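User: I'm preparing a small set of examples for a lab meeting where we compare how different chains pack in three dimensions. I only have the primary sequence for this one, and I'd like the structure in token form so I can line it up with the others. Please keep the answer compact; I'll paste it straight into my notes.
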Amino acid sequence: MARIRGYIATSLDGFIATTDDSLDWLFAYGDLDLGPHDYRHFLDGIRTVVMGRGTYDFLARDNSPWAYEDKRVLVVTSQSIPRSKGPLQTRGNVDALIAELRSLDDGDVWILGGGQLQMSFIERGALDDLQIYVMPELIGGGRPLFPATGAKATPHLMAADALDRGCVRLHYSFV
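Assistant: Understood. Below is the structure token output for the 175-residue chain.
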């Protein structure tokens, strides 16, 4: 059975993007040495990438090549994507998607992107673990790490690691 995982960065004041959806503050840390916690190591264990439509649209606007060519990519949206940037499928029902993801046995699942989709999985008890990389930046506002939905959870802290350039990795389990 596939594990459903989160891996996300946030500013110290709890935002994942600025008010104009910029990640420039995060890209300034592109040379960060995360050692065994590096994104590429995480991605090696992922077979399926799930993202919301907003994250897909953000990636589609970027000029870089599609980074998930060798992954199964599912975009949660109620609208079709006529000219996709890379191979993908769409899903409209989160509950049905969770059942589908739980039946996979060919690798883990990454809930990529913003906190809204991750929160949908947390609300349903479907996120197994979450790695949050807290960057030493105050960006003053923008998209919150988790939208206020009224949902409550008490994850178990598995690890807290001080990393390069003041970055802190928090690893939580929801199971």
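A couple of notes for your slides: Residues 116 and 147 are 6 Å apart (CA to CA). The beta strands are 4-11, 15-17, 46-52, 72-76, 89-91, 108-112, 129-135, 143-144, 156-162, 168-173.

User: Perfect, thanks.
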